[in-house]
Amino acid sequence: MRRLLVLPTSRAGWGLLIAFLTLIAMGTWPMIGWVNRATLVLGLPLIVVWSYLVIFSCVVVMLIGNRIVERDNHE
Amino acid sequence: MNSLWPLLITLIYVAIAMMIGLRARGGQASRANMNSLEEWGVAGRSMGPVTLYLLIAAGSVSAYTFMGAPGWAYSKGVAVFYVAIYLAYLALIAWYFGPKVWQFGAEFGHVTQASAIADRYQSPALGALASLVMAVGSIAYAVLQTVGSAYILFVMSGGIIPVWLGVVLVLASIAVYLYASGQRAIGRTNAFQGVLMLVVAWTVGLWAVHSATGGLSFSAVFERIQSEHAAFLTLPGASGDMSFSFWTTSIIVSMFSFMPPVWTQWMSASSARTIRRSATWLPTYYVVILPMVIVGFIGIYSLPDLARADTVALEYAMQHLPVVLVGLLGAGTLAASMSSSEPFIHSVSLSLSKDVLQPLLKLSNATTGRLARLMILPIMALVIAPLAIAEPGSLVMILLVGLGFASQVLPAFIGMFFWPRASRLGVMAGIVAGFLVTVAFTTLWPHPLGIHAGFWGLIINLPIFVGVSLVTPATQADVVERFFRIAAPRGLTRLGKKAAP
Fold this sequence. Notes:
By secondary structure, chain A is mainly alpha-helical. Chain A has helices at 11-26, 31-34, 46-72, and strands spanning 4-5, 40-41, 44-45.
């Protein structure tokens, strides 16, 4: 039992895990350092625009996740 | 302030919230037994996706959004957006874990987080420990929100309602509907408060931009900040204390702080699918933060000498906005603090009754249900009200330590969702070690190397948890099996190979 772990069991599951980890990487260092500039995009600071890009990307990934979970028909 | 309109609008909000809270047990719910843990605690697991969306959203958006966030923008700048990012990540957490927690609750009868921990590790003592220490952070949080509520009433009344009376008024209002309708009241009032906050934040934000720039575009505000105060547009911020490492570790620690009211909210859903649907759209709510933060940025150049940064939105509104909007801002801020404090008060009462007093005094479920409902009164009258009125200076410290502990309970959840070998002693050892490190790095040597104290706690906690788990007895196999039938419906993985569920 000591080596048993819960991990994704399908390609879609692995894809979703990678997408979740990418989202977390997008909002943290080092990626947040790449957008840490005092420039304005659409009238807002770059880091603010990036933050909302991360936030709305979370919605998109979860929408895709819903399709995968409901297609596979399990909770 | 000379006008009575702001106070009137704020009091009308309180009256509406009370009415909604009391009516929450109407209809089908009126026939439900509010003395049962299932009804009072988790609303009979009945909440639909829209109510759940607003319940979680309003619960997570505290008075911080209307006072603290503009204050952070005013004193630090864009560093404040770490909050928006971690709130979105909390939605990812809810999406993955929420449906599983709901299934645990529905199948095994859990109504609190601590009862799930006690069941997984077959240890009422571990459940009670988790309940008691989580209660410290929860009560500190509820007290801070109550202080915020009383402050709003004080300002809106022009000083007529002193802080002590504001504390009594706010807690009495919450007590009436929380006792009567429990989690159903929290669901309905949070739904109302969630919509109100969104409307108020955008109305106040756009009006403030218009009064400051003559237009409705945020760009004029930021162009001025860019030319005069560029440090506010990047990390580490104008005060220089939000390094990349503190930004990153604060997000990670906050993300893994599974606070008990959130579990109760997940378990109140009508189905696992409902939680997933609500969580999916949850990040969209956090557009509520943007307009209030803009008011903080406007304050940088229009109110340069404020003594308290977290009063920037209120000060700006009182100096530049119509009295009706000042009243709406008061109502919105009060909504934010009430919607955040009531789930914590409810959760502490529920968990102390279910996870501490029931096993200790060998109470029946019926007696525990009645006790949980009554327990809100002494918690409010004897703990929250005196602390809120006294406003001890160490309150924020208590909260930080409490939240630091919340993240240290992570091993308990790793053993519940990912690693069947996790043992009771491994979890306890990890929590105690992580908690001690977090306390030391919060109080004695705050955040060494610019890394969040809770993150240091996890660095020590997790290896100890794994090591002690491997050398101490695992939880009995049938218990582990029933948990992992839900946590891993397609089976576990052994070194790259699939094992039987």
